[in-house]
Amino acid sequence: MLEVGTIHTMKTDRKTDEGFIVKKTGGQAFLPQEYTDGNLEIGTFIDVFLYNDRQGKMVATMQLPKMVIGSYELAEVKDVIPNLGVFVDIGMTEEVLVSMDELPLYPKVWPVPGDKLYVTLNTDKKGRLLAVPATEKYFNELYGFASEVELNETIVGRTIRVDREGTVIITEENYRGFIHHTEREKEPRLGEEVTGRVIEVKEDGTLNISLLPLKHERMDDDAEKILTFLEKTDDGSMPYDDRSEPEKIRATFGMSKSAFKRALGRLMKERKIEQRDGKTYLVK
């Protein structure tokens, strides 16, 4: 029996109105005309990739994918179907499903079109082709030892695992990077490319990464956000000061109370704002 999800050398046995029948010991498959190189003769030996279509019929294609069962490559996400999964481009005409069972529990961190997943191929109980994301066990053999990386160095990587504690990425240099949940403003998607900075080079050669700007850069952003808010009010004031409730601060400005107080302090030192009677005012 011929194994789907793999590449076979087969012989063109006969031509039909829609393509060719290709054979080898163990079985045969249908090769649609549009899946050929357009110049085939009967009796030619060709390399084809085999898969089952939606009707369960074995199909061959000369458009060989980037991976087969047992090998891994990057595949770009092309479509997202809620309650089903995502479809990825493996290098042939048919896009292949990554089942929701293989994706994170929360759809907000599912990949979106343009993200890329490291996947291999497998089949379901009906023999239909599926793409399966690589587990971190696969990457353990790829990781390099980050011996020459400097603190605060910019690093680019792709997300390969997401969970509540943090995010694991593999960098362009094949280093393992971990982003703790406190070192990001939002959780990266599986397969998303992220750019961060190195905050620790660990003894085992792995990296701790932050997606947050440096503290002084964050303070600049926070101060600018407060000034913009004040400038948009009719009288240049707001009912918030350094004693306001943390929940109200986060709901209005999206920052912690400590960050809010630091930004207020900086703006008052620069004499851009002043506080009185539980309010903050622009200095005119």
Task: Explain what the structure shows.
The chain starts with 6 loop residues before the first strand and ends with a strand. The model has no long low-confidence stretch (mean pLDDT 91). The protein has four domains: 7-61, OB fold (Dihydrolipoamide Acetyltransferase, E2P) (Beta Barrel); 73-134, Beta Barrel (OB fold (Dihydrolipoamide Acetyltransferase, E2P)), CATH 2.40.50; 149-210, OB fold (Dihydrolipoamide Acetyltransferase, E2P) (Beta Barrel); 215-282, Winged helix-like DNA-binding domain superfamily/Winged helix DNA-binding domain (Arc Repressor Mutant, subunit A, Orthogonal Bundle), CATH 1.10.10.10. With 284 residues, it is mainly β. The chain contains four helices and 18 strands.
- Overall structural domain count: 4
CATH class category label of the largest domain: Mainly Alpha
Assembly type of the shown chains?
single chain
Number of strands: 18
Alpha-beta classification: mainly beta
